[in-house]
Every structure is written in C-alpha cells, then in structure tokens.
Protein 1
Amino acid sequence: MKKIISILAIILTISTLVSLAAEPPKTAELKIKTSAKCGMCKKRIERDLGVSKGIVHSNLNLDDKVVTITYNTKKTSPEKIKEVISKIGYDADEVVANQKSHDALPGCCQKSAASHKD
Amino acid sequence: MRNHIRQSTNWQFLMLLLIIGSTSFAQNVNGVVLDKSNNKEEAIIGATVNWLGTKTATTTDIEGKFSIARAKSKKLIISFVGYKSDTLDISNETELRVYLQSEYQLQEVVVRSSSTSMDRLSPIHTEILTSKALAKAACCNLSESFETNASVSVSYADAVTGAKQIQLLGLAGTYVQTNVENIPSIRGLATTFGLNYVPGTWIQSIDIGKGAGSVVNGYEAMTGQINIELQKPDLAEKVYLNTYVNSLGRGEINLNLAHIFKQKAEIKPKWSVALLTHGSTMQTTIDKNNDNFYDLPKYTQANFINRWKYESDKMVAQFGIKYLYDTRLGGQINKNPLSLDKLIYRFSNTTNRAEFFSKTAKLYQSKPYRGLGLIFNGVHHDSKSQFGFRPYNGKQQTLYGNLIYQDIFGNTNHSYKAGLSFLYDNYDEKFADLIFKRKEIVKGAFFEYTYKHLEKLTAVAGSRLDFHNLYGTIFTPRLHVLYNTTENTAFRLSAGKGFRTANPLAEYFGNLVSSRTVRFLEAIRPEVSWNYGISLTKTFGKSNLIIDLFHTQFQNQLIGDTEHPNFLYFYNSQGNNYANSAQIELNLMPIPRFELKVAYRYSDVWQTLGKALNQEITVQKMFVPRDRILFNVGYALPYDKWKFDVTLQYNGQRRIPNLSTTYVHTSYEAMPIQYAPAFVNLNAQVSRSFRRWDIYLGGENITNFRQKDPIVTPDNPFGSRFDAGSAWGPVVGRVIYFGTRYKLGGRI
C-alpha cells in the first residue's frame, strides 16, 4: 500500500509539473491572411499549427480567412509560421502555398475551388 | 451534437440544417421532418418529437409534419430509427424545418472525442475504446489494448508459450464472444494465441459489451461480447506506417495502405481498397530469472488483410482475405549441464491461418430503418506444436453465414431484426496419444424485437433457436433494458443464456507445458450458462460514474482441474459453479485535456471440484484475483502535441495450485489452499505529435515486478513435477519501448 501511495504521489507531482511547464512564457499575436476555403481547411490549419514548434494557440476566421496566432517569440517567428502554413498547403500573406502540399489537399480545399463556408 | 461530441469528416453532413420561418411567439411549435439524402426531400413519417426531460411528445404525420405544445424544456429531440437523433435549442421559433441525417452515412465516419466512453444509446452495457484510448498503450496487439480498461484484464497464462488470456466478469476470455467486425473470430483453436493475432494499428475501435450479448451474433456470448472494428478502406489514412522496438529486442513494423478509386469529380467514389500488414519478430534470448528457460519465446509473425469496399446508393459490400503466419520457440535455452543425457525441453508452435470474409448490405434509401445484410466467413486454421516429447496438432475449418433483416412494425418505436445463420466447424486435434475429432453443423434462426419509448426506455428481447447436429436443439433467450431516469442517469438490466462447445486443449494450452498427464474423466458436454446483470451510469459534464453487478451461473462448465500436480483432469462441472462481479468506475475530467480514471473491481468466482476422487468441494477458481484496482491519468496539450499517460494496476491475491514439490494430493476436502501475493503493475507513456509523425516512448511494468520462480523444477523438465503452466504474475520485468507513427493523407 505504501508503494502505491508513493507512486501516486509521483504521478501527481509529474502531472503538476507538466501543467506548469505548459504555461507560455513570452508570447505575441500575429494575424495572417490565408487561402483557406472551408471548415476542413480551418481544422487542418489549426491542428497542424497546434503541433508545430512555438505555437500556443491559433484560430482561423472563415469570414475573412485570417488566422490569428499566439506564439512563443523565443521559439518561432512570423517568417517561420508563414513557412509552416505554406507547407500545409495554403498561401500565408505574401508566402505562396507549397505546390506539392497544395495539390495533395482535397479538391474542395484547393485554391481553384468555389468559395464555400460549411 | 447531443451529449457526446461527434466529429464528422464528411463535413457536409455535420450540421443539421435548421431554417427558421417565423420568430413570433406561439403556443405550439410546428415543423416538418425531412430526409434529404438523395438530393430530394422526403418526409419522415413517424419520427418521435419530444421535449427533453418531459413527457410531452408527438410523432410526425404522413407528410412529416408535427405540432407540439411548448413545455418548460427548451430542448426538442427529434429521433427516428435509422437516423441520427438530433436535439434543437428552441427559444421562440414556431415553424421548423428539420433534416435528419441517415445513420448509414454517419455511423462509419464517427470519431468519438474522448478516449473511453459508454455507448449511451445501447441497451447493452457497452464501453467503447476509441483509437485515442488504444494509443495510450502503444504496444502492440489486441492483448495489450485493454491496458487502460477497467473491465477487461489480461494476463500471461504460463511461463513459456507467451500466450495471453483475457478475463471479463472474473471469467476467462473464452466465455466472451470476440468478433472482428461482427464476425465471430477469436474462437475454437484461435483462443490460445488469438489476441496476439490482431495488430493494434489495424484496430479502429473496440466495443466491450458486458453481460449477455445480442442474439444476432450467435449463442456464444456468455459473459460478454467484444467487437473489434478494423481500419476501413474509405476512411483510413492513405499511408500509415508504424514502427516499434523494445528493450527485449522485439521489433515491429506495421504498414497500412488505403486507396479510393476516384471517378469524375462530382460522383461519389464507389470502390476503395486497403491493405493492412504486420511483421514482427523477437530473436533475443531473455532469461532474467536464470532458470535456463526463455522468459518469452523467440517468435516471428507475418500477418495481412486485403479488403475491398463497394458503396452505392443501393448497396454496400465489403470483402477481403486475411492470412497469418506465426512461429515461436520457447523452453530450455541450453541442455542441462548436470544431466548425462542430451535431452533438451523445447516448446514450439507454428500457426497458419487463412480467412476470407464478405459483408453485403442492401440499403433502402427512402426507408433507412430497413436493411438486409449477409455475412460470410471461412477460416482454415492449422496449428502444430511440440511440448517436449509431446506433439500437438490442431486443425480447424469453419464456415459461417449470417443473414440479417431489419425493419419496423408500423412506426419506429417498434423495430426488429430477424435472420438465419449457419455454422460449420470441423475440428481435428491430436495431443500425444489422444485424438479428438468433432464436426459441428448448426443451423439457426433468430428474432430480436426492440421497443423504444421516446428517449426514456429501450427494451430489447431476443431469442434464437439453433439446431445442432451433436447437441440437439438449443434455445437462447436474451433480454436487455435501458431506462434513462433523467438525461444523465441510465439504468441497464440484462439477462440471457449462453452456450458453447469447449476446446479443452486449446483453452488449457499453457497447462500442457508440464509433466501433467491429460485425463478426460468423461465425455465433455457443451457449456451452458445464465448471466444476469444490472448497471448504473451517471454522467455529470464530461465526467461519469459507472457501477455494475453481474452474476454468471453455469448449468454446465468445463472444469480443467490442476489440483493434482501430476494430472490435468477434464470433466463436466458438478454442483455449484458461478461468478459474481462488481465494478465501480469513476472517470473525471476536472480540467480540459486532463483525464482521470479510478476503478475497483471485485470478482468472486467459485467452482466445484473433486470428480477425480469422487468428492465434491466448492473452491475459489484459480488465477482470479478477488480485488483489482485501476488508476489511470492522462494529460494532453492541445491537438495532442504532447501526451502523458500513466496506468497503475493493483492485482489482489489469487488462488494458485499447490506447487510444492513435496505436496501429495490425496483429497480435495483436506487440500491446503494456496494464494499468490498481490502485486502492482505500473505503465507509462509519453508521445509527441508532429504534422505527419507521432513518436512515443513508454515503459511497461516499470516497478520491475517479477514472479520469482514461475516454473516448477526448471532443472528437471522431464521429471514428474515439472510445471510451467501455473504462472500468476509477470515473468519478464521492466520493458521500455519506443515507436513512431507516420500518417499521410488523412481524410480530414
């Protein structure tokens, strides 16, 4: 029983540390206009940004296709973030979408697709 | 959209369309319920419309129209069999236009969001392990998939073969009907290693039904029913590559490929294909306890499925082939240096298994509650083993067919499934000088009626009648009731009979790694049991509390009696043989992305032994711990960028055979009862997601607990007391593993 309690204590400590470590230190906000088309694009961009280095939070507004990004200034930069979006397959401000990634997107998400929102 | 969030990759179908005609206040809410699946609107007749948590309800008329008086509740539920129910928030709308989504489209694209959940709508107590829960324990096949589940426990059966067995409700996995996509799969001779034959990366989700199962899938579900859904050709990633390596030297590679044959852009593709492959091997010599026996056998496995899917407006057809090759070598590592002879005790097994399956369903577009399905499956299973001097050869051929028709009586409050089934099993086993041949031909018919009263009550009464060429007519009744007292509280009741023919050698395979003489005291009759269960599920927010109680009473049970150290006796049970199981499980999500699970399970399982000496004594069943505690905590960053998971299991004392080499078994009544000590098992895993890659690092049995002497007289494997079939704990200690997953072309 002692063993169990000590193990539980370790687990709790680790999980507390983890949640503390997840607190962002120094962040900035950035708005980037993308070539997103639909909800699928939104999901894809937010997910892929979410697992990219230094990104704390992102939200893409489908009305104006602008993604608002909170990022850790020590770990990444606006240039790098635009590069990431390009690699996902979308235009990011002046950076044009990586052609290979763009062509791999489903038809409805490609730039040639008609505008739709759902 | 209702209580569990369902995400649909088919985003067009995600949202229910709601057009508000007028905003002026009125006493009644009027509306029309429609189906728009073939690009034309059709009225849904007989759909139930009711206010959540009230008794105010109505049904739609022949034009799909309804009118319902306003109630205190602001949530209006619209439901119809074959369609996904929907809940609307109503403030002062008066004219509604509701499009229900056919379940045919939704069922297969559902990705459940939390890792383990209860199936809220199923009248059978069903837990769902999603791909998320499966990723918590990254290694490796079905036998490891239940690590974070409180209901199912997995253990090594012996210290040599590496076979793993599950327990549910305190009883062996053989009493659970294990289906792969609703085809009875891990049964017959496959019960020995079957759990090792389903690679984890092939699995999309697992449903664990506790208690008597539905009659639609046969009579074999005695304590539960597990259904495994594999990756689908039209939904899986185009490329999914998984590699795994662990500190024991086990290496794995899994490659899944999927392709959709696209036609013109505007036409929905009809054909898709997937190839799921697996290769794994371990060639290192592991003997941590220095008993000159391999702690785990060296093994190699190759395994693949090629499956095809055709889908049109009128039908869905799936078919494919499976093939498995598995070879393993265990036993003594070197000759015994002290003995003069050159004998060495080896265990080996080579299994070849080939299978084909097909599932065809006819759809009725305008009547989604109606359906006709046909399942076909053929298996050839060939297993060759050597236990020291004793060879074992087992062959099984199985043909299975199941025809299911579903429809409603009048309206969708009364629905039914009816059908016919056919089973052909041909067993041919030889062990040393024992020969077993058995040919079973079973023709069956079943009928299952479902009564649904709003969202409150669902009752399912089913029965089947089977005509068995060896055991005559078998009648199998089953009953399930789900009652929602409030939106968040559900009671479930179940009762049902189960029947199966046992395969003693395959089921007690681990016990054959011993000097025990196998003796059948009489002809073994089929096993027959009754199972009764009751459960309560209470959800609050994203957390829930589950309490269940189950009782299994055997009319006949196969007893594999290992009380005498020199014998393995098989006989039909006498007297009282039963299992009681109680479980309380609490799942908490105190903050987003933080999951906590605490569960306690109590198993009280008794058998009546003694036929070998004409005695009758009811004792606790061996190898079943009375108490088990599971503790699991998981934390993830958004989008699972980092994921942490820790599982702790406490396994209480369990009864074991008397393994003392000086023990002489002369009486059941006076025999001393021995227990194995309780132990703790700790597993942990960290994973990191990138855009296309996941990597994970984990540890199993981190506290490095090992059973000290899992083998009796390992230095004398040809002596009369040798026994490797009585292991109760882990034989190998700590295992550290590392793996990667690469995914390309996900359908999002």
Protein 2
Amino acid sequence: MPIEIPKDKWPGSVRQVVLGATAAEGGTRTSKVVVGGETCMPFMHFEGAIPNRPVVALEIRDRRPDDWSPLLVKTWENVIDDPAAWAKAAEEVGADAIQLTLSLTDSAGQPMSPETAVATVKAVLQASGLPLIVFGPGQSEVDNLLLVAVAEATKGERLALGICEDKNYRTIVATAMANDHVITARSPMDVNLAKQLNILISDMGLPLDRVIMDPTTGALGYGIEYGYSVMERLRLAALQGDAMTQLPMLVTPGYEAWKTKESKVGEGVPESWGDWLQRAINWETMTAIALLEAGANILVLRHPESLKQVEAAIQDLMTAPDMVSV
Amino acid sequence: MYIIGENIHIISEKVKEALANRDAKFFQDLAVRQVEAGAQALDLNLGPRKKDGEEVFPWMVDAVEAVVDVPLSFDSTNLLGIEAGLKKVTKAQPIINSTSAEPERLEKVPLLAKQYNARLIALTMGTSGIPIAADERVNIAVETLIPRMMEIDYPMENLIIDPLVLTVSGCQEYCPHLIEAVRTLQYAWDPPPNISVGLSNVSNAVPNENRPLINRVYGAMLMGVGLQMMIANPMDIEQQETIRIIEERDESTAVGRLYLKIADRIAAMEEPQFDDVDPSDPEQMAIWKTVQILLNKVIYADGYLNQ
C-alpha cells in the first residue's frame, strides 16, 4: 500500500553566512565556510533544500587552559602552549574552522593585553588557512578591549567575533562593521531574548548575513532539552518567515559537555560508567549530535575523536536516502 | 464589560507606602478615580499580610466603603484576613479572589465564600501548575472546580472562572490557548459560568511603553470570544475606548474598524488577515504586529514593533 509522507512547505529560509575571506576577497584564508541557507527543518531533505552542510570547529586557547579536563590537556599536550601549532594540529585532524578563545589573563597572571591578543590571532592566521572564530574571555569590558584590537588588526579576514551579548553588542557590532567581520550573538537560552538581540544588532545597521546566533544550550543531561527547544523554536520561526530569527546557529557542545561530571571526573564514579575517555568523548559527541538535530550550523568541539564522529554523523545525515522514494 | 479595577495592588510602590502609613485618603482617592473611570468592582490586592491581615483588610474595607458603593474583591491567600474583611463589608456583595483547584484551597475557600455569600473567582490551576492547552484548563473547571461548588451547594451564579492570562514575554504559547479556553468555558456548563481574566498579566515583563497596546489588542481578541468581565486598569483611556468601540460596534474610525474586524475574526474562529490592515497606517501596523505575537505566530521580543 502506498504511503503518502506528509510534507511541510515553509515560506522562509535561513540566511547564508560566509566565514573567512580568501586572498581574492581581501583576506588570507585558504578555505572558507558557508553556513545556513536551508529551507526546511534539519535533515528533512524531502521537504526542502539544505545547501550547506553543518560545520565543525575545534576550540583552541591562546595559552594552556587552567580549567580543562586532563584528558583534553593530554590529547593536545604537544601544542597546548603554542596557539599557532594548536591551530595547525586542529586543521590536520579535520576541523572545518578554528575557534580561538582569548583568556582573561596571560600565563603570568597579568591581564591579557590587546597587543598580545592581536599577536596570538595573527600567529594563528599564519599557521592555519581555516576560517577563524575569535571569542573574548566572556567579560564584556575585556571582550570589547581585546576584540576591537583584533578586529582592526585583521580587517578583511571575515572572522567571526564573539561574544556579543546585550551588554556589549554595540562595540563589537561597530568594529565588525568597520572591519568586515561577522559576529556571533549570544543570548541565554531564551527565544525572546535571542530575537531581541538580533533586532538590536540589525538596528545598528550590520547586515544580517554577517550575524550568527548562539542561543546557548547546556549539555546532555544538563538542560539540553531546553536548549534544544529554544533552537527548534527559533528555526521554526525562521522557516515561517520571521526575519529576525533567520540566522545560522553556532553552539558550543565542547564547552558544555566537558564541564559535566561525566566528562570531568575519572575517579570515584560507578564502575558501570565505563572508560573515562570513551565516556567523555561520547558525552561531547552525543551533545553535539542532539544540537545538530536541533538545527545547529556550526558546532564547536574540543576533542579530535568527537570531531571525527560528529563529522561522520553529518556525512550520514546529509546523504540520507530520499525518504519519499524508499 | 464588567471591569474589576486592578489599581489597588501591592506591587505598586505608592500603594505599598500608603498602606504602610495607613493613608486612607490615598486609597479613597484611588477607589473613586477607578469607579469614575468605569470600574464596577475594585480588587484589593494587599499581598498575604501574614502578620496583620486581620487588621489591614477591615481597615481597607472601612476606608474604601466610605467613598464608593461597588463590590470589593479580596485578592489574597490569607483566609483569616479575607474573612476579617468580609465581616466588615456593608455595601455590595463582595468577591473572593481566589481559589484554585489545589486540594487545600479548594477545600477551604469555597466554604468561606458560601458562608459570607461572596462571589468567588476560581483559577483553572491545579497542583501541577497551569496547563498550556485550552481544553486542559476547561477540564479543571468542569472536573474539579464546578463539582466542588455543587458539592457544597454553592450558587453557580456566584462562581467566576479565571482561566489565567500569562505574559506574552516568556509564556507566549499560552496566549492563544487562553483565548480558546475563554471560548470553550462558555459551553462548559448550563447556564454558562461567569468568566474573568486578569488582562494586564499578558504584558507582565514587557517594557512599559508597549504594555497598553498589548493589553487592549488582547482585550479586543478576548471580547471576540465573548469575555464580559476582567480585572484591568479602568484608567487606561485607550483601552476603555477600544472596549466601547467593540461593544457599540462603532465603525466610525479606521482603527476602530480594525479592532472590530479582529474581534469578529476571532469570534468566527478565523485568524485576522493582513488584508484587514491598512499598511500605510502605523497604528494599524502596530496592532497587526501585536496580534501576530499574541497568536504566537511571530516570536515576541521587546523590540517586536520595530521589526
């Protein structure tokens, strides 16, 4: 008996955003990533087009991180004190982009200076031709100080700059506009606030095809269902035609998953939890794949094995057989 | 529209201060102004008043009844305080605001209402909170609230069911369901139960400059499904004007015709259409955008009117 699969037809689509500029476009990147453009819910290939596959970035730090799991430190031990080498290593294991997080202080405990931040970013750009996402330490005043310097020193590279929040969006948006960069707009797991921030950014005159939103998500077992719902609602609104939600989404499952007990703790947990490293990688991978299904366009991870598994999942999801013809 | 004036509310700093000072004149002035603006009853929301409820409520009744004759609505969870106030009432039939379907409150509050021949506002909220879906709220009324009233032989004409308005800023999905709950509740019993809502709740946490517009558009939509009673701000002149336009079917202005069209569409279980709106008129566009957020068609953001 023939079964008719119900299909939704959506009037709206997600905006396409380009990260990274090649020499021909005024930058120095050897590759760029294009995200967004979909006209259907995630991987519903039979309902619309998904012109660009989701991409995976690996997170690196400007110096040896103080609070990372020893598992991650061990994995990156050879490059962890050299952001340029770390970026190169991330590119070699297959990342589509690099996400560099600047620290609040340098390794001597002094406040991070704009000069040091700029030097680090330039070294990373030199070492890897991948598109680069640069996050400040996450304190709005310091973010403004460091990111403005970085944006000016890298004019035309089409970096993605974050974290742009309601407290500091004006400064970062202004510098992104002046220096041809993209911004990531972060809001605290709330559809209303996510949309409001996009409205405010748009009011400043930054074209929305240079905005990526980060709705924040939580990790598997730690509120991911709220993050999932927020992303799903934002994406549904985008497809229904709400211009202020039609932005690609960047999420940080690496950051989220590696702070959970399941990833962090290797001792004093039930034996049935199994191998620590395997568990941590699974946690990061499963968090990432859930967010992929919720509509994430850029996933920022930390472990190369998780990257491999998530890339494989993306490959499968993008080549899923046409449901209608099955 | 029967309006229970909401302005004597402890959340207001002025009310808080006047109450602390037992400033009878302040409350008399606020009571008179609300009644002159069209309030047919006055809500007295003084908070739980755990320590002094039995003194504050009677004091307030004395103060307010000295200047107005309308029913007083005791909006508190403090039953002893409410009872002390009820004993003092000499003018109109009072209202207790409120009971819910939570067992403890449903056990006690209706008995108090019956004893003092007070009307009773009953919220469609059970122990597990406020359901989103309209029919679940109607079920609470039909399966829990109304049976309890029958059980104690409480006069049904004194029961007022409140299906609970929640804010568009954060509880947006509740907004269209509330409209359907008001529609359906009228068929829940014969004769139809009285229904009231706290209208201004729809714009809680919304920036002040946008609150009146959201309130009056939602009010128009609710009038479309037959709402005849609400706790609201009677001194909101534009809201009162919108209510008048719909009640009198005043088609003399373009904005009035749009409000009527919205109410009629909602009444007919249709969605308001963009064709109903004159896009060259900013006021009509603002109303249209507000309808879209209240029907949960477009995600609410504080800046939704600028989109």
